[in-house]
Amino acid sequence: MRAAGEPDRRKLIAAVLGERPADLSIENVRLVNVITGEIYPASVDIAEGIIILVRTEGEPGPEAKERFDGGGNYLIPGYIDTHVHVESTMMTPENFARAVIPWGTTTVVADPHEIANVMGVAGVQFMLESGRRSPLRHFVLAPPCVPSVPGLEESGAVFTEKEIGRLLDEPGVIGIGELMNYLKISQGDERMSRIIAEGISRGKFLQGHAPRLQGRRLAAYRLAGPQSDHECRSSGEAAEKARLGLHINLKTSSLSNHLPEALMGIQGQRWRDNVSLCTDDVHAGVICREGHLNRVVAKAVGYGADPLEAVRFATYNGAREYGFEDLGAIAPGFAADLQLVEGLNGCRPLAVWIGGKLAAREGEMVMDWESGPAEPFCPPKLAYIRSEEDLELAAPAEGGETLVIQSRADGPFNRAAYERLPVRGGKVVIEEDPDLAWICVCNRYGKEQKTIAPIRGFGSVSGAFGATVAHDSHNLVLIYRDPADALLAVKKIQEMGGGMALAEHGRICASLPLPAGGLMSFCRCEEVAAQAERLEQALKEKWGNVWLLKHATAALPVLPGVLITDLGIVDGDRQEFLPQFRIPG
Amino acid sequence: MRAAGEPDRRKLIAAVLGERPADLSIENVRLVNVITGEIYPASVDIAEGIIILVRTEGEPGPEAKERFDGGGNYLIPGYIDTHVHVESTMMTPENFARAVIPWGTTTVVADPHEIANVMGVAGVQFMLESGRRSPLRHFVLAPPCVPSVPGLEESGAVFTEKEIGRLLDEPGVIGIGELMNYLKISQGDERMSRIIAEGISRGKFLQGHAPRLQGRRLAAYRLAGPQSDHECRSSGEAAEKARLGLHINLKTSSLSNHLPEALMGIQGQRWRDNVSLCTDDVHAGVICREGHLNRVVAKAVGYGADPLEAVRFATYNGAREYGFEDLGAIAPGFAADLQLVEGLNGCRPLAVWIGGKLAAREGEMVMDWESGPAEPFCPPKLAYIRSEEDLELAAPAEGGETLVIQSRADGPFNRAAYERLPVRGGKVVIEEDPDLAWICVCNRYGKEQKTIAPIRGFGSVSGAFGATVAHDSHNLVLIYRDPADALLAVKKIQEMGGGMALAEHGRICASLPLPAGGLMSFCRCEEVAAQAERLEQALKEKWGNVWLLKHATAALPVLPGVLITDLGIVDGDRQEFLPQFRIPG
């Protein structure tokens, strides 16, 4: 598959033979050949967006309309992010592109899983269209787990094989996104088999997601079809997955960082051709300050990867994973997606070209385009939350113990235990215990259903925090001590058309509007980062060591541990509901 | 692309989870993981022809219908020959399969270029059908150069983009075969561009062939589309081609061996993921005695390749070259094409499985099938060669010098020079000069056209040798001193329905019938080898150091140097005819 489309090959041949001028010659560089692992002085000639010739130093080049002096720096291919949820940056794809291109990313394979849960096929189409405005090569995978676990939650859309098939036929959709329902998939689940079959029959890529899976279960998962994994949590897991031929996407996201363990697992192996890099979920602020895939390159090098090989992970290996035959290397026939860098350690590039055109220089975009319309869409439907009482937990008449979710500081996955909590006026109350707060998940897509539960260990909760970003259903999640503040946060979020708000003592302290489906802003990276950081700062000041999306991982029923959805409290390991109350016997 | 077709994945999952028995467990092996470069003790479970689980030693396996004790030997994937002309073995594909499977070859990507030149699409279909009878995974590339250079020769068929497109839509045809007309292709030739476009539009593989091409010409060739090369003749050429991302098919054929040079070129590079192995043209006798792709593995190891990496070249890298996602490695989801070997040096395997079924053991096939019909087809049309006079060279009335082809002992490519030769009775005569012989190429497809020329340095020619095997047109080639013996050879070849014959003093000394299109026998490997060796022996006894297909390389106008076709004498470097006589001025 050619990411850059089919060129006019006879024009390229004419240019290399000197019968017509090249468009650009990048001269005087140390060329990093990620195919063979060699670095040598060279010049690179480009025509029609394609590399037509790599010349060794001194060899005369074809006539070129423009020349660029590389000043003896390294020339490497543009980076390829093999797994990213653009929505997690809270930017639209075109603004995401403006933010990441200056850091050397020229291609992303995005799983628009979040917006698909909010608004189905139309959401994916929004991402495709927004992505097409920018020069970033923005490829999309059709998200298969919408919702992540049917029956355990309700989101804004339900994808069957029909929707997946329809998306797979859209231009720019190159596979099926992360097949995260690994328990069902490794059991040969009927629904997932039908979805996977849509990808297989079209010869499309199947992206995996199988945290902690090893042995027979992992083999079963692999046999079902998935071809990659970005969830290795230990070195043994990474080594085993590599032995299976799975593509290993090493990641450094804003939510987790198991890169050192995964890297250790594969460093003992002789060949690592199937290792690539990804960011998964990364915040706008991190992109502003530290960058994007270059940051993963830097981390890998920091943890002991050879710099040249780290660049290979980020370029050639990513291209091969998806079968992009024209990306990820510097040789005739490859797209001229290039970056000039002072070192192979993930530093910010001096210049970035996409399709042979200068896109960014010294960290600033030099390429621009007309932005898409900034019209809000898919506002949250929360009018059914009318009063404080709607946010209180009614105790059962027969009494008994209440299931309390336990947010764990020492691990990513929540647990739960039944506790005898005080009841007043028919309501469970938590006032006396400063470690307790409420967590509430409210359907925001037109169904009047919600779950309220006590949660322990979340932080020094006061007032209320609410957000329409909560993986993967993106129902409204509220964390609060005070139902009145929670109601205020709900109203503010409704008014913004989606987003996040922190309320205390009857007043909104900070907020972040996300009018694009309740997930994304129309602002650019710096502005989104500033808004998010103001909100996070306020949260930290008031609640202690709480990060912005901590609430979000409590609501994803595909994770291990105990989760909460609009339909109830879920045992993620067994994928079944837990009763909210019990009479001890 | 799955070489073994789409499996019933839910059956595989059921087997790995122990819900139904596996078909076979191969236990107690040292598993060679060509993905990661590790070797470890393991057992392998197989169901439905697919590997479902690799267990480390001691780990209990699923119930299996059959168990095989590997005796602690190495288990490696079946070999993949990335470029072979099956016709050159003079066997049909099904008998070729019988010969090569016991040596560990389980997949070949064949270019049926020879039979296509003889009889067009029907020839390719014969190869596909014959191949389908055997368990060998016999994939085919559509031959693009039929004839190799239009206008310079006439063979039995002419392929335009129409025939190529038709073949590319046949099941089992996975790409376009060797694009050997590299001069024209690197100039953007119209006809070749149209043929290549048929492959590109279908996302099919484009096999290259670019001997001695480097620099701008090589870049131009690459830009035209070809993805591989099996013609590296020097280390610098191999290194450069590898840097371009071309797949390098290292070869040891019966015609040439540049493996040491090519290997040296890539050994200095850090990564060799695009290096695979091939046999190109190999004789039945060599297969009988030394094997097939294992022989190339052995040569590579002999010339300094690391044995584990040589196995990787012969398996995983070959699979990746063609995008066979289920071949070339031992892991869940891969086809159970396996071989048990005592060493990684290309030795004959103890056992070979294809699709999980035992195919050969200790060098003998244990799998058999009903052979296809042994009915001769496409007999040579040579009735127009009626008399000795038809095989003599008429001198021009105006006198002058005659072009004499010079067969070179010191290099593969012929030269030519004008010489003043005696003329008697209006004929050029060679009797006085023992170093001279006649070479004659006669169209055998219904056109009454031939070229006769003197040839120098071919050997101690006496009598006549004739053959319907002569790359690539496979017109009849005759080498002779005595036109009467040549006529006798023609008659014998006609009588056999194609083949080779050696005549002397009015008698046939040895012959080899090739009734399948004049290229192949219906006999099995040992018999074909015996017949060919008897013929070669007779040739050597009478003519000195002459190998069987020496005549064939004189008739391929795509080669450099001077060639002879049914239409005239050709300057291969310029691709134009040379006048057969000249008046010195």
From TrEMBL, chains A, B:
It comes from Candidatus Lachnoclostridium pullistercoris. Residues 74-358 form the Amidohydrolase-related domain. Keywords: Hydrolase, Manganese. Its cofactor is Mn(2+). InterPro entries: Adenine_deam, Adenine_deam_C, Amidohydro-rel, Metal-dep_hydrolase_composite, Metal_Hydrolase. It catalyses: adenine + H2O + H(+) = hypoxanthine + NH4(+). Residues 417-575 form the Adenine deaminase C-terminal domain. Belongs to the metallo-dependent hydrolases superfamily. Adenine deaminase family. This is Adenine deaminase.
